[in-house]
Design goal:
Blueprint (H helix, E strand, L loop, with lengths): L7 E5 L11 H9 L2 E4 L2 H10 L6 E3 L5 H11 L4 E4 L13 H9 L4 E4 L4 H9 L6 E6 L4 H11 L5 E7 H15 L3 E6 L7 E6 H9 L6 E6 L10 H12 L4 H12 L3 H11 L1
The chain binds S-adenosylmethionine.
Length: 276
């Protein structure tokens, strides 16, 4: 028998692929919880069966959260209520922050059982700067809104982390290249699963690679920060272009200089045409 847990809210991170990533602490809390609030009971039932327990579950997702939240918070006065999402850390591109806010406002105790999160796992695989990063979740699907969202973060000196799906990947990478310049990036796929893969390159290279081959599975894009010479003097751009154009075609020279200086390729290409 599991020991009884004190009443309150327990935020429990669960694996994003490999079920062995469920921590002993998470397993103990899920085994002892009086009630588990879940996104999808079929997904959580599989996880519970992996640790050999059955616990009562109740749905908590975007479509019912506002309606069921007060009742869940009432139950936390007497019961240990765990919150899980289908995978990873609840609240991260998943429902939950209002539950935490309102539970605390109602005087309930809130605990977290930290664990897997695709954004952080991808950052550790990307080989890009980790000292400053910004998590942006899913970009808007419509191209105008997506371009605006990207333009908003373009000046930020940090690595950027996005969640994405296979069918939208190439369009997202092309929009990122157009809005951010041809920065270094990584496409991280199926973390901790059989077909885990990390592909690195510039945004343009990655957009080309996936243009006709949308990958399967779950995906995180990590984009490096703008280059140190974010706004290099025009003379530096010109000098770099002149040198590169002695070795390369105009468009390749522009691509190389844009990448090395962290500038939008289109702007550099226009300058290259003017110099030619
Ligand atoms: N709360 C989760 C977390 O902590 O990562 C994220 C939930 S969000 C609804 C789901 C998205 O996370 C997926 O569309 C994908 O972009 C990313 N993701 C989840 N698992 C992943 C995995 N194993 N590999 C790569 N990306 C993953």
């Amino acid at each position: 028998m599991s020991e009884r847990l004190p009443p309150g809210l327990y935020i429990v991170a669960t694996p994003i692929g490999n079920l062995s990533d469920l921590s002993p602490h998470a397993a103990a809390v899920l085994s002892a919880a009086d009630l588990i609030a879940v996104e999808d009971s079929r997904v959580t039932a599989k996880l519970l069966s992996h640790i050999g327990v059955k616990r009562p579950m109740t749905p908590y997702h975007d479509h019912n959260a506002d309606r069921v939240r007060p009742e869940l918070i009432a139950q936390m006065a007497e019961k240990a209520v765990a919150l899980v999402s289908d995978a990873g850390t609840p609240l991260i591109s998943d429902p939950g922050y209002k539950l935490v806010r309102d539970a605390r406002a109602a005087g309930r105790t809130v605990h977290t059982v930290a664990g897997p999160c695709a954004a952080i796992a991808a950052l550790t695989l990307a080989g890009l700067p980790t000292d400053r990063f910004l998590f942006l979740g899913f970009l808007p699907a419509k191209s105008g809104a997506r371009a605006s969202a990207i333009a908003e973060v373009a000046p930020i000196k940090a690595s950027l982390i996005f969640y994405e799906s296979g069918p939208r990947l190439a369009a997202a990478l092309a929009a990122l290249r157009d809005g951010l310049g041809d920065r270094e990036a990584a496409v991280v796929r199926e973390i901790s699963k059989k077909f885990e893969e990390t592909v690195t390159g510039t945004l343009g290279e990655l957009a080309d690679r996936y243009a006709d081959a949308p990958p399967r599975g779950e995906i995180v894009i990590v984009v490096g920060p703008p280059g140190e010479a974010e706004a290099p003097a025009e003379a530096n751009v010109d000098a770099a272009l002149r040198e590169a154009m002695t070795r390369l075609s105009t468009s390749r020279a522009a691509a190389e200089v844009a990448r090395s200086l962290g500038l939008p390729r289109r702007d550099v290409y226009e300058r290259a045409l003017a110099l030619r």
